[in-house]
Each structure stands twice: as C-alpha cells, then as structure tokens.
## 1
Amino acid sequence: MINFVPFKCPVCQQALAVSGRSYACPQAHSYDLARQGYLNLLVAQQRRSKQPGDSDEMVLSRQRFLDQGSYQSLASAIAEIVGSHRSGFAQSLLDMGCGEGYYLQQLRAAANLQGQNSDFQIAGVDISKRAVREAAKRKLYLQLAVGTTAALPFFDQSFDSLLCVFSPLSASEALRLLKPGGQVHILEFSHVGPKPLARAYDLWSFQVLPRLGQAVAHDRDSYQYLAESIRKFPDQQALVDMLTDAGFERVRYENLSSGIAAIHRGVRV
Ligand SMILES: C[S@@+](CC[C@H](N)C(=O)[O-])C[C@H]1O[C@@H](n2cnc3c(N)ncnc32)[C@H](O)[C@@H]1O
C-alpha cells in the first residue's frame, strides 16, 4: 500500500512509517498490513462491541443492493460535486465511514473519465472490518483503514475533501482534517418537504422499501429498520446549524428527490 497521506498512530498520535508489511511509529506501536491491503487502526478503547459497525450480513446485503446500480444517481451527484473542486480530481479525499467502497469506486471511475486518476489520492475509513475488507477487494489503489470517524487516524489538515455518506459524522474531526479551503460533503437521509409528498414517501418507505430490500438484497428486516431510522436523521437546517456551530463556513445543502436525501457542504476557511 502506498502511503499517500501519512497515517497517525491511534495510540501515541505520531506518524506511522511503513516497514515491510507493517506500519510502525517511533514508540514502536506496530500495525500489520492485512493481506487485502488495509490497516486495522481501531484500538481496544475505541471499540464498543466485539464486532463494531456493520455486520458481515449488513455489509454484503448493502453491497448487493448498491452493485445493482440502485444509488447510481446519488453516486453521480457526489462525483459531480467532488469533481467541481478547483483542481478537479487532482486532490486528496477521505471517505469517512466508507462501507464497502462503493462511492470510492464511483469516484475513481469519474476521475478516470477526466484523465485525473493518478492525481486523485483517496482514502477510506470504516469501523467495520468486513466493510473495509470488501472495499480493499475492489482494488482501487487507495489507503484503507479500520477506524472510527470519532478519532480519524490522520494528521490535521490532511485532505482537500471529505465525504460522509449515510455514516456517523464528527463535525469537529472533519474540520480538523481539512486543509484550509477544503470542503466536507455529507450525504444523509433528510426530511421530505410538502405534506402530500411526505405522506407518499412514508407509504413508500414503510410499504415498498422493505419489500424491495427482500427482493434485491434478500433482507427485509434491514430495510424496515432503514425506513424507521431515516425518520431519526436531523432535518436539513439542523445539519446546517451543526456544521456552522462546529466552525464550517459557507454551509449549504441541496435536496435530492425532494429531500429524501440531501447533500450538505461546508468549507474550512
Ligand atoms: C449506512 S452505512 C454507509 C456505508 C457507505 N458510506 C455507503 O453509503 O455505502 C454506515 C457505515 O458506517 C460505519 N460506521 C458506523 N459507525 C462508525 C464509526 N464510528 N466510525 C466509522 N464508521 C462507522 C458502518 O460500519 C457502515 O459501514
């Protein structure tokens, strides 16, 4: 694995240097590179359960769902926004809670189309080991680590762009990691605007979505759970306020599909 952006030791916060198939810091904390090409930088005190993050079953079922192209339009919207950076894809990006790397793959493909693949440095972190392992299997030529978005294993001002797609976000961590002028992009389920539309959406998410989940991913329960948990996401303005309070500037959002999802953006000045 090529160390495009230096990793930080999660124990002593010093830089990790590559040494054979391991990464080690000056204090001799050492992390083996997995056969698939990722590092496990989640330390015991950051672990709240035996298998943190999405389970094998959730990861594989989402992978099946995404690889059907169901969220292709979301991926294209993200690629367009990331590629609108002043240097196009000639930038460094971290996907926080990258799952099994679907959006990273889509971004790589978009950079490739623009002829900027070799200048596009990408990294992904997820707390689920299975998710990171699946992402590594996509062979995207990127840095991957098991870790938590609450304490990301990189130094301050490491990235031009950050992405967070349906994953837990620490706004203060995001701000810390961005270079001045860098942007965070957050894709989150949100709140549907006009009342009749909101009612139709409720009907769709509680009646249709679980059936769709059963048909496409053979997993009705997860999609029922998804429909329920979507209602708990903050609305558009609450997320704007949260990012602004954390210190982001020029925070704005764009509704997708009338607010079923929204992409929020904020700049670190
Ligand atoms: C809904 S999935 C989204 C995955 C991916 N971004 C996508 O949209 O395909 C949420 C992801 O967040 C990860 N996750 C949950 N808590 C996390 C944490 N504290 N730090 C990093 N990842 C976390 C889960 O393992 C899961 O892969």
## 2
Amino acid sequence: MFAWRCYKDTLPTNKCLAIRIPHIHPICAICSREDETIMHALFHSSWASKVWDASKLPIANELSLVNNMVNLLELLRFKLTVDKIRLLWVIAWRIWYGGNAFIFRGEDVYYQGIVPYCGSYIREVDGSCSGETLTSQAIPNVWHPPLSHTIKLNYDGAYSECEGLGGAGVVVRNVRGLVLVAASWFYPYAMDPYSTEALAILLGMELAVRQGWKSIVIESDAETVINEILSNSPSLSSYGNVVEKIKSLTPFVDCHLCV
Ligand SMILES: [Zn+2]
C-alpha cells in the first residue's frame, strides 16, 4: 500500500495535504527548507540522503534525473536486481516512518540504524515465508499463470462488520506474471463480505471491458460469490443486482471464474 501511494502521488506529505487542506503549509517539517514532496521526504531531505548513502544503493544518478517515483523506478528496474529494488522500498518506507515519528512523536531522527534494520526486516519476512518461523500448517498458495492471450485477475476483499466498511483489491497479471494493473477499492457502505467481493469483481470486469481484454480469468477465494455468478438462475442474493450486472458483461469478455 505504501508503494502504491507513492506511485499514485497520494502519500500524505505536507505538499499533498496543502493542496486539499488550506491551513496546512507545504514546507518540510524536518528541515523547513523545501516543500515536503514525496521525493523530498523519501530521498532528498538531508537525513534521507544520509540513509541512502549508507545503503550503498547506486541511485544517485537516477535521482538527479527524475522528480517522481514512477520515473525513478522506471530507470532503476533495469539497473537494480529485484532484491535491491525490494531493499529500496523497505528503506523508503522506513524513512517515511522515521520522519513521521519525528514530526508527530518527537522521536529523534536516526539514520545510522535504518539500513541494518531494513536488511534484518527483509530476512525475517523471507524466513517467515519459507517456514523458518511459521511452524503451523502453512497453506500452499501458488499463483498459476493463465493461458497465453489471457489476463488473470486475482482478488481479495475485507469487511468490517462493526463499521460497515469494506475494501477489495485486485492484481492483474499476464501469462508471464507481469503485473499490468493493481487497484484497490474502498466501500464505505458495504453490506457484507459477499457484496464487497461481488462489487470488486464487477469493477474488475468493467476494467477488462474498458481495456479491451477479450479473455480473462477471475480468481477469488469468495466461493459463494463465484457460484452465484456461475449459476444459470437469476441471483436472489442480497447482492443479486451486482451478480446480474457481472453476467451482463460476459458477452464482451470471455470470462473464466475459479476459486
Ligand atoms: Zn526537509
């Protein structure tokens, strides 16, 4: 989510907030010298620069050429390995966290420990994924690519019953596993987890129609919703209107649903 917000330029920096909230000043609260843009907060502020120097990641040239994360990553993806890109994101996230800890909690801004922390953080995550620390029955969860000329949409949704809030995300990949689109939706008046998942699938279908994708696979763990969509009978569920709308789009997209 952090990376996504960086890409969409919606990280709540002062510069970003000042556009929407009149009394907020765009200046950086740490150095008071420049506007706090994403690039300033994560890379160009004096303390962030020290962190990147300590990281030894060779990004200085690229940083001097671009002014947003999209362009920076576009340049770096051919230069850095996947592991280095991963380290870059974790460091950026930690810099953001450290800056906020200074601004909102008055904690000191230390740069010395950030890179070692990020390295151990990644090792811990990798250890968890490989089962080194998770000894309970881990469920094998392997992504399988779609057939050629087919796009695969993987969904997951979440629902808070007490707040009536729902959210869902989708990742769209091609046969090589390349991510074409990643998107998330927030539903402030969600009825239940099923309608949340159904709405997400509908939005994915509409996305496919707009993009001109002729053949898609929709993969979701919402078996109940998938069965409603696959049924030949009209849906009588509380989210039946959404199911019927999804069905109405199938003439435009060859859609294969699976759980
Ligand atoms: Zn600053």
